[in-house]
Sequence to fold (655 residues):
Amino acid sequence: MATANPMTRMLTPEDLLTDRSLRTRWRIGFDRAVGWVLPLLFGVAILPILAVVYYVGSRALPTLTVTVLTSTSLTAGVDVLGVPIICTFEIMAVATLLAVALGLFGGIATAEFLPDRLAGWIRTTANMLAGTPSVVMGYFGYFTFVLYFGWGLSLISGAFTLAFFMTPYVFRTADLAFTSVPRHVREAAYGSGAGPLQYILRIGSRIALPQILTGVFLAMAIGVGETAPIVLTTAAATIVPHSLFSPATFLTALIFANYGSSLGAGYVNVAFQAAFILIVVVMLLNVLVRIVSARYQKKLEGLYL
Amino acid sequence: MSTTAVPGPPAESQPVPPPSSPDGAPRTVRRRGAWILHTIVPLVPALVPVAIVVAIVFALLSLAGMSIGLSLTPFSFRFRGPVNFGWAFFGSDFAPPYHWEIGVFIVGSFLTAIPALFLSMAIGLGIAIASTTYLPRSLTAWLDPFVDLLAGIPSVVFGIWAYAYAAPYFGVTINPWLSMHLGFIPGFGGSPGLPTGEGLPVTIFILTLMALPITTLLIRDALRSLPRDLWESGLALGATRWETMRRVGLPHGMRGILSAGFLGFGRAFGETVAVAIVLGGASRYPTNFYGETGTMAATMFALLDSAYGNGQFLALLSEMAIVLLAITLAVNIVGRRFVSSFVGYEIAGM
Fold:
């Protein structure tokens, strides 16, 4: 009994490999070599992320203090981040509200009401809008809000331009969230006599809301990192804007204005500090999206049981 | 009781005809006149994206027509005159206010976007194949989100990182090395460019990184969504993993791979700020591979300030915007025809 019965031994690939010709060995060897080489390409994608975070962090963190973050007054040689942070909050708040108002209802309408052909055309248009280069969006904002509406380089021009940039993302996730509500849930709702509005407000939205939320967060992550639409439509303000129509600035705009500054190391450092804050904000939003979306997937799977 | 079909709610005694759509599923319960509520009212918010696209095209066309005094009319698009879409428009001599030729920027856009596209497609294919075939699921569950994070880094942050760290490395080390060892290829020899490194190579490097998450993600999705039977039938025939990928996976996932190419190109082609920071912003053809030039997006971004109050200059820039928009939209539409899923774009922020 001590010697292993060859019939009960675990089979290995070598047992199945009866063909030991040179060509077969070459094929298997090549396959293994590919298996070792291709994963190294992950490094090409991951190293730059680490490099960006490391270099920006090492440049920003030594001089990043609470005073720099909160002070709104300029001191000689050193810029401070209070004004851009406040402006970013204000512009993002207005732009997110607008983008949700413009995108959410359209997404629901496309998913729930419109005939399929028309909905398909509208989805294509939304995709086109999402593919528009940001500089073209900036031109549109400059021509329309700054020049034609006469709002000038101001907070509200920037917020509107950014909102139009973010709208298709909200639209698409709202559309996707409502179309991916399981059919039997929808049928049960309508079958028990609910009207479309009752279905949307009471049943559909409960299932779709988390995904809509991820869409809004994603739109915010994309919006807060945009430079061209903001730089072209808001003036580089150095004081806190006192109304919607006064000049404003943005974290990305500050980075772009300061990165090559010849006024001193303080000005360049502040660009890196702003960049570091931006990275942290965007990463947090991305993590939030992942958490909410993972929960949503579980919930959807639960509905199918 | 008459037996003719009477519009309106059916009487109690008659069976209610089930409302049905082509797939047999009732979507909404319809009453008389409800189509206004169910089709016309929802149409209003649904047309918002269409309205925005129309507004963008309208605004650009209007500004393009401003210099000959037909401002804010959509069809004042000029094909003649000092600013025009004629042959001179695509020339190489850009020196306002005397010449208005933007060909150099169109060439510059393609010169940076196409190499970046090929590089990011090659790397993205490699990563996607490794992730779907060679690495265990427990490992890719950690590695894949890292690649997606690359899409989350704002382009201006990439730009200043490249300006401060990557570009000098290119200028001092990589460009001279390339110039020395690849000098026998036409265009790759000669002066290795500025020591600060601003020029084509570092721009292509940055654009590759920015297109990489999109190409990787779309190719990965395309390969993952293939039915399991396909892979297993290949393996069961005795093919190695690589042979299965090469003969089964890649041909069947070709649509997704093509769409990854188109959308990655769209991303690289329209990229603005990072390119404006590292390309040098010259308005001439590059003398060799290491030279400076300008792309359409970066030039438009840099020059809007100086065009203030100059109608002809604004018109020129908006004509450039129209060309850029047309190319990007065409690429996007073609690319999205190949894929039906939304999942990929949402994560890559496309």
